[in-house]
Amino acid sequence: LILRNEIIRLKKTKESAFSDDSPGVRVQVYSDYPFNDKSVFVIDFGKRDGAREGMAVVSGSDVILGRITRVKNTESEVQTVFDSSWVSGVTIGVLRTQGVLKGGSPPKIEFVTQEAEIKKDDLVFNTSSDFPLNAYVARVEEAGKGSGRFWTRIIVKPLFQRDNLDEVFVLTNFP
User: 3-state secondary structure string, the chain?
Assistant: First the structure.
């Protein structure tokens, strides 16, 4: 009886990581030590829990970590911005200059007009409908202008470190 009550309590705790009207659940991240492929990580959230491909995964409530790309019965794989196939819309800095985030190691922003003022440490915000609007994505690490219509190089640093992820939020009711 004690064990059954403890199981019920733990299930409720996992389900109510947010308030009842919250769009997500808190889940654990599997360790990939000693391997360190930053492009994908695995979470303890699968078909049994309602996982679906495309669900957004965030840290806290405002930093984008990735999206679920593969679902198994008890776990899911999460693609991050370090994956070379990642592409999403973003804005940069306080003036919200538009660009396209291209995944990789390191991730880069392309198609930013050369008239834009881009500086190191400018924040990068999401504009893709796959994630919450204006959620944090990264910070400008390096920017270089070229002679064409667009900036030639904008390298960004995501606002998370894969090594430090123990727990994440899956946005189950988004959008």
Answer: CHHHHHHHHHHHHHHCCCCCCCCEEEEEECCCCCCCCCCEEEECCCHHHCCCCCCEEEECCCEEEEEEEEECCCCEEEECCCCCCCEEEEEECCCCEEEEEECCCCCEEECCECCCCCCCCCEEEECCCCCCCCCEEEEEEEEEECCCCEEEEEEEEECCCHHHCCEEEEECCCC
Q: What is the pLDDT of residue 151?
A: 77
What is the pLDDT averaged over residues 7-27? 58
* Residue 56 pLDDT: 95
pLDDT digits (tens, 9 = 90+) for 93-148: 989 999 999 999 999 999 999 888 999 999 999 999 999 999 999 999 999 887 77
Rounded Cα distance, 40 and 93, in Å: 27
Distance of CA 37 to the CA centre of its chain: 15
